[in-house]
Specification:
- The protein is α+β, with helices and mostly antiparallel strands.
- The chain has one domain (3-396): FAD/NAD(P)-binding domain (3-Layer(bba) Sandwich), CATH 3.50.50.
- 25% of the residues lie in helices and 26% in strands.
- It is built from nine helices and 19 strands.
- The strands form three sheets. Strands 4, 5, 6, 12, 13, 14, 15, 16 and 17 form a nine-stranded mixed beta sheet that branches. Strands 1, 2, 8, 9, 10, 11, 18 and 19 form an eight-stranded mixed beta sheet that branches.
- It is globular.
- The structure holds flavin-adenine dinucleotide (FAD).
- Flavin-adenine dinucleotide binds next to α1, β12, β17 and α9.
Length: 411
C-alpha cells in the first residue's frame, strides 16, 4: 500500500464534501475526497428532495441560499463545464401560508435586501401558470369530514426557485473539482485518524488499509459525523442527531394539467414537487414530529416509508390537486443530521490543529451546498475569492449561542 499525501482531505462525498473540495482546489490546494460508499451522493444527498428555495428566517441563510441559486442559474459557466447534469428546474416555489404574518413581512424585506426575486402575489396571477394547484388556506380534516376549500387571496412566491437533481448536481461539482486538483477515492471508509505532533495528520487510515496524510482534514461525513469526531476526541457543544425522514411518491395522473410548482403548505404541513420530468410527485412533511425520529446507527435504519405516512401524504396531496384515483403510492425513508439546538450546521475549526467540521445541515444542506463550499474553502485556506458569498463563516461557529429569529422559529 502506498501512503498518499495531500494538502487537504475531505471525509465524505456528499454535496458538502464535494463542494468544499472544489472550492479548496480553486484556492490552490491538492485535495482527496475519501468516500465510504460506491459513489458520491450515496448518503443524505442522493436521497434529498433537493428543493432550492431562498425563504429562510435569517438573512445570512437567505444570502447563502440565493448565492447557491445564482450558481444553479449559471451552472456550466461557474463550474467551467460543458454539460449541465444538475437538473435545476426553476419551477417556482409557492408558500401557501399566511401572508399577513410578521414572518412573511420579514421574508419580503430580506428578499429585497439580498436582491432575490420573490414576494407576496395575488393568487389570480398564479392560477394560469399552475392551473391544477388548489390555493386553499385551511387544513384538510384527516378524519374524512367534508371540507370546504377556501382560497387565500395572496401567497408568497419565489419565481426563480425550484429543485434540482441531487446526484447530477454532486457529480457536476465533482467533475469541476477533478478538472482542478481533486482526487476521489470511493469505497474508502475512514476508520482511524492520527494527528501529527506539529499540526496536520500523519495517518488517515481507511478500512481497505490505505493510509493518507494531510495538513487539513474536513469532516463532511453527514449522519456519520460523530464517528469521525470521536476519532479525534472532538465533542461538539450542540446535539447533532441522525434523523429518519420519509418521502411519499406517486405518478402524476392525466387529470393534473399544467405546470406544477414546488409548494409548501403550512396548513397541511406538507411540501411537494414534481419529479421525473413532471410525471411524478414527491411529497414530504414539514411537521416537527416527522423530523424527530432519532437513529442511533446510520448504517442500520428502516429505509421504507410507513403505510400511515404514505396515506397521510396522499390525502393531503389530493387536497392540493384534484385526482380521480389514488394511484400507486411508493415511498422511502432516509437520514439527515439535525442540529436539535437550532437546525443549522456547525462549520468551524475544532480539536487538533488542522481539523474542521461541517456537520448538522438538517433539511437545508442541498440548497446551501454550492455556496457553503465557498465559506469552507475560505475558512480552511484564508483565501477569499470574488464570487464568495458575503457571509462570515463564524455565523455557524461551534461556540455560538443557538441561532434564533425574530419569531423564534428557524426553518
Ligand atoms: C429525504 C430528504 C429530503 C431532503 N430535502 C432537502 C431539500 O429539499 N433541500 C435541501 O436543501 N436539503 C434537503 N435535504 C437535506 C440535504 O440533503 C442534506 O442536508 C445534505 O445532503 C447533507 O449533505 P452532506 O454532504 O453533509 O451529507 P451526506 O450527503 O450524507 O454525505 C456524507 C458522506 O460521507 C460518507 N461517509 C460517512 N462516513 C464516512 C467515513 N468514515 N469515511 C468516508 N466516507 C464517509 C457517506 O457515505 C456520505 O456519502 C433532504 C434530505 C433528505 C434525506
Amino acid at each position: 500500500m502506498t501512503h498518499k499525501t495531500y494538502d487537504a482531505i475531505v471525509i465524505g462525498g456528499g454535496i458538502i464534501g464535494v463542494s468544499s473540495a472544489y472550492q479548496l482546489s480553486r484556492r490552490g490546494l491538492r485535495v482527496a475526497i475519501l468516500e465510504k460508499g460506491p459513489h458520491v451522493a450515496s448518503g443524505s444527498t442522493g436521497q434529498s428532495s433537493a428543493v432550492v428555495r431562498q425563504r429562510y428566517a435569517n438573512i445570512e441563510v437567505v444570502q447563502l441560499a440565493y448565492a447557491s441559486l445564482q450558481m444553479f442559474q449559471n451552472w456550466c459557466e461557474r463550474l467551467e463545464l460543458k454539460e449541465d447534469r444538475s437538473g435545476f428546474s426553476p419551477a417556482g416555489v409557492v408558500w401557501l401560508s399566511d401572508t399577513a404574518s410578521a414572518d412573511c413581512a420579514e421574508a419580503v424585506r430580506q428578499f429585497e435586501r439580498v436582491g432575490a426575486a420573490g414576494g407576496v402575489v395575488d393568487v389570480n396571477e398564479l392560477q394560469d401558470r399552475y392551473p391544477s394547484l388548489n390555493f386553499c388556506d385551511s387544513a384538510l380534516d384527516m378524519t374524512g369530514i367534508a371540507h370546504d376549500c377556501r382560497n387565500q387571496p395572496t401567497v408568497f412566491w419565489e419565481p426563480e426557485g425550484g429543485f434540482a437533481d441531487p446526484q447530477g448536481t454532486t457529480e457536476d461539482l465533482l467533475q469541476a473539482a477533478i478538472n482542478k486538483t481533486v482526487d476521489l477515492f470511493v469505497r474508502h471508509e475512514v476508520t482511524r485518524i492520527e494527528p501529527a505532533a506539529g499540526g496536520g495528520f500523519r495517518a488517515v487510515q481507511c478500512s481497505n488499509g490505505e493510509v493518507f496524510s494531510c495538513n487539513a482534514l474536513l469532516n463532511a461525513s453527514g449522519p456519520w459525523c460523530q464517528r469521525i469526531n470521536e476519532m479525534v476526541g472532538v465533542t461538539l457543544p450542540m446535539n447533532l442527531q441522525p434523523t429518519r425522514v420519509q418521502i411519499a411518491q406517486r405518478d402524476r395522473p392525466s387529470d393534473v394539467v399544467g405546470e406544477i410548482p414546488v409548494f409548501v403548505s403550512a396548513a397541511d404541513q406538507i411540501y411537494a414537487r414534481p419529479e421525473a420530468n413532471g410525471q411524478q410527485f414527491i411529497v414530504g412533511s414539514v411537521a416537527a414530529e416527522d423530523e424527530s425520529e432519532a437513529v442511533d446507527d446510520p448504517d442500520n435504519f428502516n429505509a421504507d416509508a410507513s403505510q400511515e405516512f404514505r396515506d397521510q401524504m396522499m390525502h393531503k396531496l389530493h387536497h392540493r390537486f384534484a385526482m380521480r384515483s389514488r394511484g400507486t403510492v411508493r415511498g422511502y425513508a432516509a437520514l439527515y443530521t439535525v442540529n436539535t439546538d437550532d437546525w443549522h450546521p456547525i462549520i468551524d475549526a475544532v480539536g487538533p490543529q488542522g481539523f474542521f467540521v461541517a456537520n448538522g445541515f438538517s433539511g437545508h444542506g442541498f440548497k446551501l451546498g454550492p455556496s457553503i463550499g465557498c465559506l469552507i474553502g475560505r475558512m480552511m485556506t484564508g483565501v477569499g475569492l470574488p464570487d464568495d458569498p458575503a457571509v462570515d463563516v463564524r455565523y455557524f461557529g461551534a461556540d455560538r449561542k443557538p441561532l434564533t429569529s425574530s419569531s423564534g422559529v428557524l426553518a
